[in-house]
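Lab notebook page, bench 4
Experiment: in silico fold of construct C2
Operator: M.H.
Input chain length: 229 residues
Purpose: comparison with the prior construct
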Amino acid sequence: MEVLECIKSRRAVRKYLVKEVPWELIANILDAGRHAPSSGNLQNWKFIVALDKDKREAVAKACLNQLWIALAPVHIIIISEPEKGERSYGDRGKTLYNIQNCAAAAENMLLEAHNLGLGSCWVGAFNPVEIRRIFGMPEEVEPQIVLTFGFPNENPAHPSKLPLEAVTYFGGWRAKIKDLAAYAGFYSVHVQKAVGKGKEAAKEASITFKEKAKLWKDKIYRKLTEKRK
């Protein structure tokens, strides 16, 4: 799947088929997370895979009783290691970079899951104390994200998105280009018109050339016929 198409067509899936996810697909998802960018290449994350039904039910309760979560056959909990970020980047590394790193890993996983034909959902609402207890995490690590995976049993509609010109500035706050579509070529209105005109011109030129060639051929044929006579 093309990367941009994968990004645009991915949806948050909360209904899953009762179907086991092959381990090789789970491994691909984990590997996608492992290859995410991180501040200073710290890679200060850990991933816990939860397949056991009891664990998944416990996670669903810890996620503020979102019971649909238990029906997802695969959970991956992304945990940060704040001390690593703090050692390299101080307080900013502890409070920001470790969260950003985990978010990058999560997005990689979601996109790879979609690419593999799986549904997934990013869950951020949970009780961190309960998540830590369920999986026996030490105090120095921090659960950041719960991801659910499985074969989708729904096809969510495309969510509305703000237009590009509403979220993009150039060179400064509130600095905009009036016709961003034409400038960036995302909607290619002008390009399509130009291409259309070019095709029409080429078609006309082709017809004109064919007509001239036919006339020229007919003229030569007549001359040869007259000579024979």
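Observations: The CA atoms of residues 216 and 222 lie 10 Å apart. The longest strand covers residues 142-150.
Next step: discuss at group meeting.
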